UniProtKB/TrEMBL annotation:
Keywords: Membrane, Transmembrane, Transmembrane helix. This is Uncharacterized protein. It comes from the Bacteria. It comes from Sinorhizobium terangae. The chain crosses the membrane at residues 20-38, 58-79.
């Protein structure tokens, strides 16, 4: 009795759907990056709208009860500090577009040096 084979000569194996494999890999990478970028600790990166003046970031950090530490390589990215655990949520309510892990600041700085 002969075992049926597909066009590729493999027995009982289904062909790999490369599109589905790529989409699953992309989803995994996005989930890993988002977990890494989640704000943790007292220092966070605050991203405001690129068209807003730098003073906007300083005012919304103050409105959220934090301290302005410094600006990133771009005027709409700032480093902020507060000891409160709900500081990232307060920054978002005050008008920040994104609040990210402060370790991204070091990664961005190293990338710009290359």
């Amino acid at each position: 009795m002969a075992i049926p084979q597909d066009d590729h000569g493999r027995r009982g194996e289904r062909p790999v759907n490369k599109t589905a494999l790529c989409l699953h890999f992309l989803l995994f990478v996005l989930l890993a990056l988002s977990a890494w970028a989640m704000p943790r600790g007292p220092f966070v990166l605050v991203v405001t709208h690129p068209n807003d003046p730098p003073q906007k970031a300083i005012s919304l950090i103050a409105a959220a009860g934090g301290s302005f530490v410094g600006s990133g390589g771009l005027p709409w990215i700032s480093l902020a500090h507060a000891n409160s655990e709900d500081f990232p949520a307060r920054l978002l309510r005050a008008g920040a577009l994104l609040v990210l892990n402060a370790s991204l600041s070091a990664a961005c700085s190293q990338e710009s040096l290359k």
